[in-house]
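Input.
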Amino acid sequence: MIREIDAKGLACPKPVILTKKELDSMEGGSVRTVVDNVTARENLSKLAGSMGLEFSVEELGGTVFAVTILKSGEKEEERDEDIIIQKPDGGMVLVIQSDQMGKGDEELGKLLMKSFIYTVNETKPHPKAILFYNGGVKLTVKDSPVLDDLQDLLDAGVEIISCGTCLDFYNLKDSLAVGDISNMYTIYEKMQSGTNTITIG
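Output.
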């Protein structure tokens, strides 16, 4: 069985996430994903390699490619067992300190942050909690470009916590649209409780 995905016009990581979802949902068969840029082609190839699956790349003309990934079933089940065994018990905590990712161009930084939050939402296991302070609280208020993804994560059981002092500083407390307002003690407590705490910003 071959499942087809038309991912033309989609920016990374969407083609990868759509393809992985299809692979995860099937016991065996192939997923053929059509993309229209070299970056997506390379990322799909890396996905297949990281999962230990065979793949082929077909040039369809210009910058359009079809990446076909073959899933045998048995091999992937064995890898899933390994992942479950190695999964940390305490959960991961994400700390987001800016509405941009990395330093440099502001527009690029905001685009990267939007892509990152989308990836967190679409990838399992989800983190235990996501903590927002300083400029990061701008992501949890009305008109935030990542509001839908954060709401999905909250609905899935992820704690979404924003620093009250930071919301006050930016005059955004009345605009909070997702999650809870808390203080630095709670933020520190959540950071300390995580098996793995990662800071983004």
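The chain has two domains: 2-82, 92-200.
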